[in-house]
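Board notes (copied after class):
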Amino acid sequence: MDDAPRISAQEAKKVLDRGSAAFVDTRNPQAWSESETKLPGSIRVPADRVNESLNQLPKDKQLITYCT
Protein backbone atom coordinates (compact mmCIF):
# COMPACT_ATOMS: atom_id res chain seq x y z
CA MET A 1 0.00 0.00 0.00
CA ASP A 2 3.01 2.28 -0.33
CA ASP A 3 1.60 3.57 -3.61
CA ALA A 4 -1.81 4.50 -2.17
CA PRO A 5 -2.71 8.09 -3.04
CA ARG A 6 -2.83 10.68 -0.29
CA ILE A 7 -5.70 13.10 0.00
CA SER A 8 -6.12 16.27 2.00
CA ALA A 9 -8.53 16.66 4.89
CA GLN A 10 -10.69 18.85 2.67
CA GLU A 11 -10.86 16.14 -0.02
CA ALA A 12 -11.70 13.52 2.61
CA LYS A 13 -14.52 15.73 3.94
CA LYS A 14 -16.02 16.07 0.45
CA VAL A 15 -15.98 12.31 -0.05
CA LEU A 16 -17.46 11.77 3.41
CA ASP A 17 -20.22 14.31 2.76
CA ARG A 18 -21.16 12.46 -0.44
CA GLY A 19 -21.44 9.22 1.56
CA SER A 20 -19.15 7.41 -0.84
CA ALA A 21 -16.36 6.58 1.60
CA ALA A 22 -15.64 4.61 4.72
CA PHE A 23 -12.87 5.65 7.07
CA VAL A 24 -10.56 2.95 8.42
CA ASP A 25 -8.66 3.83 11.60
CA THR A 26 -5.40 1.86 11.38
CA ARG A 27 -3.85 3.01 14.64
CA ASN A 28 -2.52 0.33 16.95
CA PRO A 29 -4.65 -0.48 20.01
CA GLN A 30 -2.45 1.54 22.39
CA ALA A 31 -2.53 4.69 20.22
CA TRP A 32 -6.27 4.30 19.75
CA SER A 33 -6.98 3.94 23.47
CA GLU A 34 -4.78 6.94 24.34
CA SER A 35 -6.41 9.22 21.79
CA GLU A 36 -9.12 11.70 22.68
CA THR A 37 -10.02 12.04 18.99
CA LYS A 38 -11.96 9.27 17.31
CA LEU A 39 -13.80 9.69 14.02
CA PRO A 40 -17.41 8.59 14.58
CA GLY A 41 -18.40 5.71 12.34
CA SER A 42 -14.87 4.78 11.41
CA ILE A 43 -13.89 1.13 11.17
CA ARG A 44 -11.06 0.11 13.48
CA VAL A 45 -8.51 -2.21 11.92
CA PRO A 46 -4.91 -2.07 13.18
CA ALA A 47 -2.45 -1.67 10.29
CA ASP A 48 -0.91 -5.08 10.92
CA ARG A 49 -4.34 -6.74 10.47
CA VAL A 50 -5.61 -5.00 7.33
CA ASN A 51 -4.90 -7.93 5.00
CA GLU A 52 -6.76 -10.41 7.17
CA SER A 53 -9.68 -7.99 7.61
CA LEU A 54 -10.28 -7.12 3.94
CA ASN A 55 -13.40 -9.29 3.75
CA GLN A 56 -14.97 -7.22 6.57
CA LEU A 57 -14.47 -3.85 4.84
CA PRO A 58 -17.16 -2.33 2.60
CA LYS A 59 -16.76 -3.19 -1.07
CA ASP A 60 -19.10 -0.44 -2.29
CA LYS A 61 -17.22 2.53 -0.80
CA GLN A 62 -13.88 4.22 -1.24
CA LEU A 63 -11.72 3.31 1.77
CA ILE A 64 -9.78 6.10 3.43
CA THR A 65 -7.25 4.90 5.98
CA TYR A 66 -5.75 7.09 8.65
CA CYS A 67 -3.37 6.78 11.56
CA THR A 68 -1.07 8.91 13.66
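Comment from the instructor: DSSP finds three helices and three strands in the chain. The mean pLDDT is 87.
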